[in-house]
Amino acid sequence: MTAATPLGKDLLGLEPLSGEQITLILDTAEPFKEISERAIKKVPTLRGSTVVNLFFENSTRTRVSFEFAEKRLSADTVNVAASASSVSKGETLVDTARNLEAMRIDMVVMRHPSSGAAAFLAERIESNVINAGDGTHEHPTQGLLDLLTLRDHFNKIEGLRVCICGDVLHSRVARSNIWGLRKLGAEVAVCGPRSLLPSAIDEMGVTVFSRIEDAIEWSDALNVLRLQLERMTSGYIPSLREYNRYFGVTRERLERAPRDVLILHPGPMNRGVEIDSDVADGPHSVILPQVTNGVAVRMAVLYLLSGGRPEMAEAAKTGKSGGAA
Q: Which of 24, 123, 132, 217 fits as disulfide partner to 111, beta carbons 3.0 to 4.6 Å?
């Protein structure tokens, strides 16, 4: 599966991709949405291919979404958690991957706590590598599913005003969203305490808001990020209650907006901290459609990296053609 594809050998982030490549993935995901609505949610597109999900960090949503995508394309899947692997005995990342590759696998989907780990692996093995989140670098498939959800709702990306709110400093999702949105012509802003914004945020081509009220007034959509408390030691925020008071996305704040504002959240949510329950479950929330779109986007990425032709994606969903090259 190392033949040239429209995306190259691997999907490591959205920053290296062109706007045309990102649009290609979104367009390819569209016909795969219908598969999830069928009684039998499976097509033979990747039959005979083996995909290893190699997760060095805990994950439920992303890992399960990839597993659904792989199984709906009829790939054979193997899940490896670092706590249950030889890594816990001192084996290196490269040794683990090379041993897996010796078993003739085709793709590796990897999540790792270190930024750059996916690129490090991709340079050293022949199998395709999909980055499922590396440190605070990127989470490209989450960025893609957010883009697809926005496009579904607004029928466009270009010209939209999207504000990413919350813990941008520790968020790989924020970086993928910033690169993807800007490449497709959206205006992007961030909002949060200065202590939770990267020091180089002003160089990323985004508007910076210090007040959530100003961000809501400006935006067509808010992508609300979780406070990543597990990555914080101390000193980033005074307290969760104070964060909610000054930066929480609440129904009262949204009701004062000049327009309806779409609400996204990559999950899992800290309800009552960065977002209130009546917003997360409210009429302008597309949090559950994001989850649905995640499977379709990951199916599209797997299909394209396997050598599937973009123009055959519609046929591939029926199992008539468009299988792996």
A: 132
Q: What is the DSSP letter of 269?
A: -
* Cβ atoms within 10 Å, residue 164: 28
Over the stretch 123-154, which tens digit does the pLDDT of each residue have?
999 999 999 999 999 999 999 999 999 999 99
Kindly report whether the global pTM for this prediction surpasses the value 0.85: yes
- The pLDDT tens digits for 72-101 are 999 999 998 876 555 555 578 888 878 888
From the candidate CATH numbers 3.40.50.20, 3.40.640.10, 3.40.630.30, 3.40.50.1370, the one assigned to the domain spanning 19-139+291-309: 3.40.50.1370
- In this prediction, residues 308-321 reach a mean pLDDT of 70
DSSP 116-153: THHHHHHTT-SSEEEEEEETTTB-HHHHHHHHHHHHHH
Domain with CATH 3.40.50.1370 in the chain: 19-139+291-309, 142-290
Q: Please tell me the class of the 142-290 domain.
A: alpha beta
If we measure between CA atoms, which residue out of 90, 149, 147, 93 comes closest to residue 121? 93
Check: CB of residue 290 under 8 Å from CB of residue 148.
no
